[in-house]
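Audit log entry. Action: structure prediction of a protein-small molecule complex. Ligand: pyridoxal-5'-phosphate. The ligand was supplied as SMILES and no pocket hint was given, so placement is left entirely to the predictor. Protonation state taken as written. Sequence taken verbatim from the request; no trimming, no tag removal. Recorded inputs:
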Amino acid sequence: MMIYSTNKHSPNVSFREAVLKGQAPDKGLYMFDKIPLLSQDEIFEFKSLNLKEIAFKILYQFLEEDFQEQILKNIINKALDFPIPTNLITDNNYICYLDKGPTCSFKDVGARMLASFMEHFLIEEDIKIIILTATSGDTGGAVAQAFHDKNNVEVVVLYPKNEISTLQRKQMTTLGDNITAIAINGKFDDCQRFAKSAFADSDLSQLNLTSANSINIGRLLPQAIYYFKSYSDIIEHKNEKVIFSVPSGNFGNLTGGLIAKRMGLPVKRFISAVNENDEFPKYLAKGYYKKVKPSRVCISNAMNVGHPSNLARLIDLYNGHIDEEGNLRINPSIDKIRNEIISYSITDEITKETIIDFNNNFDLLIDPHGAVGWAALLRYQKEFPSEKAIKSINFETADPAKFPEQIIKLTHKHPKIPDSLEIIQQKKETMTSLEIGNYHDFKTYLQKNF
Ligand SMILES: *Cc1c(COP(=O)(O)O)cnc(C)c1O
């Protein structure tokens, strides 16, 4: 299967190349040129399969030429070593829990699969890389946990010294081995600047610096898996249609769903639930696109995105083109997008009310991101009451225990800390994280140590 760049100015590549490169040289995002179609019989048969078996069926459709069967199975078994359950909440509304991985965030799915793909390719090619990533909080932990103990990979994470929580820091500093966390005396923007400078610095080219950011196609594709899994868990008959509500920031989660639909998954509608960063619902309403700059700060902080990176893929799926600056170069079939996706912006005020109501009505906690998705579902069902007859799947993308202050304030309940977070909290920070204040010192550190 060939992979092209959404900017169409880079050569086509194999999956291996796309994973190792991350972003295309023309700054476009990599995308599969064909999306294989499954029959409704095949999809209905997923009901008798478990998560790993479904994952294999999906991925093998795309990656048959890239992996031997057993190798792909081993990669899946190692990466997806946590459950993705879907529970009935009320009436026809379900929640699919994507927060059962090691960092209790939906990002574990993509990051762990990407780490396993990369390790496999690096060993085969006998090359070593350094993953350099800047984090404002959560991504660093998910990447560090996913790549910990992987062969042929070193990880260097830069985080702003005074801007992340103790738990977020510990997710990076308690691992040791191939994980180095560096506290930067500065802000997230400084961390990003150091990383960018290092990628562009020819003195460091022999270090094979790579980014493992969320636009890597090795992270995107696995995000189609849980759409099939949660669907199989709840439907009763073949070709039954469902609604998905997706808390969205950079739109990687939603793009995974769009791929699943193109593969044949019967989806009545996607609800793209965003916080106060409302560039996408505005685009669907008005027909022209304008990013939100600077992005708005909301309690669903992993979704504070004023220009979603995966919009390039979404627009491309509907035959349009948006460049990396956010300029629409070719208009997509917007009516087709409106037909498949409805998007709502949820304010922080409504998000908080939803967290309270959810606890009062169901005696259950929901995190701020999941609450944005749930609130958007309720708005949709209010607008289209007859759709209440259709089953809905809502994603919970983080464990409420990651947001203790908000949750306690709103519900007066103390969220139970999941084992994986508890273990990290207890652990000693084996590595005293280094403190660096300027690019020169950072560069010298890299040259001395790697
Ligand atoms: C990253 C993230 C999201 C947003 O997902 P996208 O793929 O960027 O749209 C939602 N919730 C949580 C908890 C996240 O970490």
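Audit: result stored. The domain at 84-105+221-411 is CATH 3.40.50.1100 (Rossmann fold). The longest strand covers residues 153-160.
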